[in-house]
Amino acid sequence: MTYKELYQQILRKKSYLCVGLDTDIRKIPAHLLRTPDPIFEFNKQIIDATADFCVSYKPNIAFYEALGPKGWESLQKTIEYIPKEHLSIADAKRGDIGNTSGLYARTFFDPSSSGLDFDSVTVAPYMGSDSVKPFLEFENKWVILLALTSNPGSADFQRLNVGNASLFEEVLKTSQTWAGSDRIMYVVGATQASEFEKIRQIIPDHFLLVPGVGAQGGNLEEVSRFGMNTSCGLLVNASRSIIYAGNDYDFAQKAKQEASALQQEMEIYLDKYCN
Ligand SMILES: O=c1ccn([C@@H]2O[C@H](COP(=O)(O)O)[C@@H](O)[C@H]2O)c(=O)[nH]1
């Protein structure tokens, strides 16, 4: 998916919502446990209920890996089921020495190797340019680099001063010099709203993946006011607050209501701040 295609979808749906598929076998409604693939059945119903209100889906790979081969099978079926117009994000936070990163990239981007064909993957920048390069070599795919994460521990390293700037600012600046940097997005937590203005000065045009609204308490209005650019430039993720809005036969209907409410709020902010 190109930058332009993503922006057009945002305009069409009046939404920049990413639904997080953090599907936990211990949390899904009991009646689904009687189906052959409860994780996929849950995801399928969530996708059917929310597709009109979001532009992206983000399965967090941990929830699938934890189940072994069965989890990978559910993940593969989920990825095949997500409508092609939605940007798919493998939230895997990978990154290693070059040849190992190459295999991680094949895992998520090369269906002939792994059966998975994601549009994008989250990558940790800590090991530097050669650890990210193999992902960027897949020309029609996106790398979503961790910049300033939503958790309290983001202060431990990401905010440390290195020279004249903090480490996360260096990640933003240095990664701009890498080949294929036009296909980088950045993770910035919704809980970090005070930093969005500064971040936009460094990377005015890039898309930001913003987790942390809903269960983590981030403020959608602030994120939109300070983070939006002229092409929206935001994908705001909500996982638990949507997919676990209900826990019974009506779970998908409840998820739909949550996604719809966020979309309606986003429509207001698109009118107000995307110009
Ligand atoms: O900085 C980060 C990076 C990734 N995440 C992930 O996003 C979702 C958030 O889930 P919620 O239930 O909406 O809180 C989850 O998969 C995290 O691993 C993040 O929260 N912060």
Automatic annotation (TrEMBL):
Q: Give the catalytic activity.
A: orotidine 5'-phosphate + H(+) = UMP + CO2
**CDD domains for the chain:** OMP_decarboxylase_like (cd04725)
Q: Which domain of life is it from?
A: Bacteria
Q: What is its EC number?
A: 4.1.1.23
NCBIfam families xrefs: pyrF_sub2 (TIGR02127)
What name does the UniProt record give this protein?
A: Orotidine 5'-phosphate decarboxylase
Pfam families xrefs: OMPdecase (PF00215)
The keyword Protein transport belongs to this UniProt entry's keyword annotation: no
Which terms are listed as keywords in the entry?
Decarboxylase, Lyase, Pyrimidine biosynthesis
Pathway-wise, it operates in: Pyrimidine metabolism; UMP biosynthesis via de novo pathway; UMP from orotate: step 2/2
**PANTHER family membership:** OROTIDINE 5'-PHOSPHATE DECARBOXYLASE (PTHR43375)
GO MF annotation list? orotidine-5'-phosphate decarboxylase activity
Q: What is the main EC category here? A: lyase
Q: Which residues form the active site?
A: K93
List each coiled-coil range.
none
Domain spans labelled Orotidine 5'-phosphate decarboxylase: 16-255
Which family does the UniProt entry place this protein in?
Answer: Belongs to the OMP decarboxylase family. Type 2 subfamily.
| An example Gene Ontology biological process | 'de novo' pyrimidine nucleobase biosynthetic process
